[in-house]
Each structure stands twice: as structure tokens, then as C-alpha cells.
Amino acid sequence: MTNYTSFVGGLAGCGLGLLLAGCSGWTYNPPTPGNPISERQNLSAVRAAAPQSPATFDQALASDYADYANTLRQDNNYVDVDYFSRKGLAAAKGVTVPPEEQSRFLVPLEVPEKFRSQLVDGRSRLVTALDGGARDRAPGVAARAQVSYDCWVNSMEDNWQKGVNGVCRQQFETAMNQLENRRAGEPVTQPSAAAATAPNTPSEARVYFDFDQAQLGPDAQQILQRIAQQAKQNPNLHVVLVGKADRAGTDAYNLALSQRRADAVRQILVSNGVPEANIDARWVGERQPPVPTAPGVREPRNRVVEIAQQP
Length: 311
Known about the structure:
With 311 residues, the protein is an alpha+beta fold. It is 49% helix and 8% strand.
């Protein structure tokens, strides 16, 4: 949330004499979203308020916001630490805390990449799931989806090149896939409380690519390192890779591109100790898109290698 990092702006939101006492609340649209003076106090408060084993959506939300704020503090992002700490404190008190609105952030490249449109679509999916009962049905997964979405929006402003296919977005997509693909009456596996920026290593995962690229960034490589660690701990695990592409370009080109992406993932897994015989890689180009689109559409969620771990 770099457009709110001014120290002067923080003092404008609260008089200096009232700074610590008056800036600890949270509202959806405050005059000053975060204040570097009160961040230490509010981070300590949300850590104390967040339960270790959350049972409800609000409790899980408080825990995940506390973890996210703690991660931001490691990057010395004190304004955002304060803001998301206060969101966690509000959730711990049972206050309704909605996901962020992308319009409050400086997100670039709506043309041609449609980054804002992607965020709008993501929030719509999230709100639909939450209002459809996900808060009660799968509180931990729903909280993870919301905090990961907030992290994704925030990262798009701070560093869009890292945020567009970064860990926060991948964490959001993983949680949303759990919420959206669940059959009626089927329980959802709850994740343990952890930082929103720390990816899970589930039996299924996805790593994403930039447009027309087959190189993986450091965030995706961290996910693959964790998958490799799991595979090494269980030699009977078989890793299945499916490379995909969006529909910008010809069918033949996208098929070759999806092969390069699958090969890139396989090479990283092998370099991290997974036996090549335990990896089955295939590629389908644009023919099995996770998100169906018209021909020629650049869809970031279709630039993916899907990873399944099977006994």
C-alpha cells in the first residue's frame, strides 16, 4: 500500500498526543490506513488476540492477518503492518472485516494486462464464496483466501512484477479452488494457521508463468522446493505435471510453450532431489484451460503447470 507510506500522512490522521490511543481502531476506509508510530503496539496486540487454534472464521482471520502483518514487518513496511494488524484486531473482536477493494491501490497496466480486472474478478469470486456459506463451512480456508487476496492486492501495488504471479496470488488460487470445487456436503480440509505469504504444500498445487514465458520466478521455485522435500520424504510419491497455456497464439505454439513450462518444473524438481522416474510430465497447450476464454485472450490463470502428488 505504498501510496499511504507517508509519515506526515500518519500524523495528519491522528494528533500526535492522541496517536497511540486513537489510531488502534480499524475502519474500511480510514483517513490514514496505517501509521508507523502505532504499528508496534497494534502488532503486539493482534498477536496476543489471535488464537493459536482458531475455530471460527473471525478467529482464523485474526490469526492470518497477524501472521501477514508479522511478515510485512520483516520487510520494514510499518504502515502496512499497522493497517493489517488493525484489521486482525477488528476480526478478533467480531467486527465484519471485508476483503480489500483494488480501487484503493495504485495497480498499473490495466491496458494491456488487465491487472485491475483480474483483481476485481478475484474479489468477486471470494465474496461469492464467503456469502455462499464458506465462512461457516470452511472457516480456515475462507480466512486464508481473504488474507491472501489482500496480500495479492497489496503486492500488486508494491511490486506488480513480483505480485502478478507471486505467492500471495498462488495462495489465493489454492484456497479458492478448495472452496469452489468442493461438492455439496463434502468437507474441506482446513489449513493450519500460518502466514498468508507462506504457500501450502498440498497434494495439488499450481505454479504460474508470465506471458509467453517458461521461466519460473523465485516464489514459484520456493513452492517447488517444498514439493520436492515432500517427495523425498515419501519415495512412493509420484509427481504428475500438466503444462498449460492461455489462448493468445496458435494452438501449435501454445502446445510447445506448455511443454517448455512442464519441462522447466520437472528440471527444478529433479535438481532438488526428486528422482526423474517419479515424475510424469505432460502438456496440453490451450486445450484444457482452467479458465475458459475466447481465442486470443491473455489469461494469467491459464499460464500454469498443475502439479499433483499421487501415491
